[in-house]
Amino acid sequence: MTKKRLLFLQVIIWSYFITHVVASENFKDVYFANNAIQEEGSVTRIINTFFQFQNSSNIEVSEQKYFLNDSKVKTFLSDAIAPVIQSTTVTSAYELDVLFDQSLDRASSEETNNYVVNNSINSPTTAVLDAINAALVHLTFANNFPNGKNCQLTVNNIKDLSGNAIVNATATFIYIVPYTTQQYDVVIDEIMADPTPVVALPNNEWIELRNTSATAINLKGWKIGDLNSISGAMPNFILQPDSFVIICTGSAVATMVPFGKTIAVSAFPSLDNDADQLSLISAEGKIIHAVSYSIAWFQNELKKAGGWTLEMIDTRNPCSGISNWKASTDLRGGSPGSKNATQAINPDQSAPKLLRAYAVDNITVTLVFDEPLDSLKAAVVAGYSISDGIGLPVTAVAVSPIFDKVNLRLSTPLATSKIYTITTSAITDCVGNAISSKNTARVGISQIADSLDIVINEILFNPPPTGSDYVEIYNRSNKVIDLRQTYIANRSSNGTISSITQISKENYLFFPQDFMVLTPDVTYVKATYINQNPNAFIAINLPSFNDDKGNTLILNAQGNIVDELAYSDKWHFKLLDNAEGVALERIDYNATTQYADNWHSAATSVGYGTPTYKNSQYHMNNGVKGDIKLSPEIVSPDNDGQDDFATLEYNFPEPGYVATITIFDAVGRPVRYLQRNALCGTKGSFKWDGLGEKNQSLVIGVYIVYTTIFNLQGKTKQFKIPLVLARRN
Q: Which of 316, 519, 575, 716 is most buried by its number of CB atoms within 10 A?
């Protein structure tokens, strides 16, 4: 451009500034404009220094001629705003990055005295403006930041490129010493799984976390999982020692924040009301705490219906399950964001117990314990020994996230139809209690139950209003049967099999000659009846059983009937005033199930039920050959479990015999027609309960059991057997 043309352009620009800028008394802009115009450079640079046009058509350049079109011209707006601190990031124990909202003047930004940190940290030793991002300054200090304590940075005299300076700008930051979070440093200590009906808390599902360690822990990247899903990652959040935070879905944050510090996570798991397994997972993918809760943990019939939280009683005892959890006593329904209402000293002083074991295949065995274990000690193979030459396993691995199971890998395969014993030692629970006497379990290769391998042995179908049904089964075979492959059912009114229920959702071995009790309320049955094996219970929602009569069936994995009982309340002892709460017991495992004389009311002396052990009325057919035998010789029908009835056992060389049995008193009068023309098998029995024909009580004394048998071939025989009817004082 020639000097003449440059001068012409200056005249135009100055004319505009005299008219608009000076008139507005913005003399500072006039000063900068004059300096810019005096500089050598392109016309484009000069114009852009002073004018902002609405679009690119405001200037035309053609054949070295420059025209200002008839366009709107805006005045140049100078920068009068000081920089603002956008963020601070701790990069080490003594280094801090400070990000501003605009580019900085290098000289002032690298002056160390312009920065001061409290807590005796003072000014940095160096301040370096980033080589790429002119809004970022790297500070290095001589003193380390205090761990887990809020620090405040104060900034003064830092200028932007226009010379605007910061005055007393502040920002806070916190430094956390790098720490490998250990198991149980943070625990799930409160669970709102069923918020309705609302008591006084918002209608939201949530959990509460508590930091039980002495170190502040950043929850950034942590997640919550259940059996079906895992949440999104938690945001940057410092959980201080002995403090709490509520975790919930984003839509619940607004209503939960008033109760305490709250974190939202995406895909927050849907908490099941009856039972669920929750896991707290660190950013590194480590299980920090897991809880497998159930509705029984409420230990309160009213509160388990909803609206109340489950609270951990003692957070120093994070693994004890139901013994360390119960319903909140806070009148709001829970205590989110604060100390649990139920908090108390509740140490775990019980040794872990080995409950059972099962074989996944012939070289893999899983052990099931009653509480979580120390996963490192559980992984020591020397802590396990298997009988019959198997010896030590090759590997042992505690199963996450609960760590109450251990998988063993064997070097020698298990043999079919053989039962082994596993012994454990040197294993501790999560608080250090060592396993002691309950340290053995049986294991074997399981098989599917066939017909009458399992029999129904005892049934309580008419419990008190506050009680619960139960069914006891007995393994009369020589097989190890997996109850996960076995089902219980009833029949509908039209006779079809219905309400089929899997006995166990986990592998559960049922060994030969063992008893197992199925009930929806294990606590009730254990508290009401004597039980000799508290581990022989499975909590299960049984099919419904009518109080007067009904059906119960055992099915195998193929849906085949293993055993079936069509019971009746008329099978109870006739002199019982009230059969409510009285179980029916099978007299002989090997006798026919569907036979009234093979069932009797449980004895008074045992509390009217014998769940988990041999029936009070048990009497096995001794297999008398070719004759009839009566036992016992003295009967006392008072339902005390001692000789309450007489059993007439028969054994004939061939089928087809018909029997008539009459009871006579000492003077020859018939008092009971026990059987009339009853068709007999080759072997069987009949029962007399000591009552008369109208189910009345008879006087004590001597009675005669008179039996006549015959068959179609004309063979006949009579038996007269005396019996004493007595009463106990």
A: 519
Q: Are residues 601 and 459 in the same domain?
A: yes
Start-to-end CA span in the chain (Å) = 135
284 and 420 in a common domain = no
DSSP 312-337: ES-TT-TT-GGGGEEE---TTS--TT
567 bridge partner residues? 550
* Mean pLDDT of the 15-29 span: 43
Domain that holds residue 26: 3-74
Q: Hey, what amino acid is at 199?
A: V
Query: Is residue 115 domain-shared with residue 60, that is, in the same domain?
Result: no
**Helices 43-50, 3-16: inter-axial angle, 10-degree rounding:** 10
Q: Where are the beta strands (DSSP E) in 665-715?
A: 670-679, 683-688, 701-710
The 3-state DSSP class for residue 28 equals helix
Strands 515-519 and 223-225, by their bridges, are unpaired
| CA torsion angle 365 370 376 380 (round to 10) | -40
Give the tens place of pLDDT for each residue, 129-172: 999 999 999 999 999 999 888 999 999 999 999 999 999 999 99
Residue 258 preceded by cis peptide, ω within 30? no
Q: Tokens 């009833």, residue?
A: 490
Query: Structure tokens of 243?
Result: 């403090």
What is the spatial distance between Cα 589 and Cα 566, in angstroms, rounded to a whole number? 16
% of the chain with per-residue pLDDT over 90: 72
Q: What's the helix, strand, coil split of the chain in %, to 5?
A: 15, 35, 50
Q: Is residue 623 in some structural domain? A: no
Q: Which residue has the tokens 């007995």?
A: 474
Kindly report the backbone phi and psi dihedral angles of residue 658, in degrees, each rounded to the nearest multiple of 5, phi listed first: -120, 135
Left (φ > 0), alpha (ψ -120 to 50) or beta: where does 390 sit?
alpha
Same domain, yes or no: 497 and 419: no
Q: Are 544 and 625 in contact (CB under 8 A)?
A: no
Tell me which residue has tokens 């059906």: 551
Amino acid (1-letter code) at residue 259:
F
211: helix, strand or coil: strand
Q: State the amino acid at position 121 in one-letter form.
A: I
| 469, burial (CB in 10 Å: exposed 0-12, middle 13-18, buried 19+) | buried
Domain boundary among 150, 174, 198: 174
Q: Please state the separation of Cα 405 from the chain's center in Å.
A: 14
* Residue 385 near residue 392, CB atoms below 8 Å: yes
CA 520 to chain centre: 18
Contact by Cβ (8 Å): 566, 688: no
Could you give the CA distance from residue 307 to residue 632 in angstroms, rounded to a whole number?
59
Query: Would you say residue 345 lies in a domain?
Result: no
Nearest to 231 by CA among 182, 275, 271: 271
Q: Are 297 and 376 within one domain?
A: no
pTM to 2 decimal places: 0.67
Note whether residue 617 is domain-resident: no
Rounded Cα distance between 695 and 683, Å, is: 27
Q: Please check whether residues 552 and 464 belong to one and the same domain.
A: yes
Query: Residue 531 is part of a domain; what is its CATH number?
Result: 2.60.40.1260
Residue 483 sits at φ, ψ, to 5 deg, of -70, -10
Q: Inform me whether the pLDDT recorded for 56 exceeds 50.
A: no
Q: Please write the tens of the pLDDT for every residue from 128-138.
A: 999 999 999 99
Q: Which of 132, 134, 1, 13 is nearest to 68 (CA)?
A: 13
Tell me the per-residue pLDDT of 196-229, one tens digit each, with 9 for 90 and over.
999 999 999 999 999 999 989 999 999 999 999 9
How many Cα atoms within 13 Å fall on the side-chain side of residue 69?
12
How far, CA to CA in Å, does 176 sit from each of 151, 209, 280?
12, 19, 20
Rounded CA separation 360/510 (Å):
15
195 with 273, same domain? Answer: yes
Whether residues 411 and 466 fall in one domain: no
Q: How many domains does the chain have?
A: 6
Token pair of 636 as six digits: 């006392």
386 within a domain of the structure (yes/no): yes
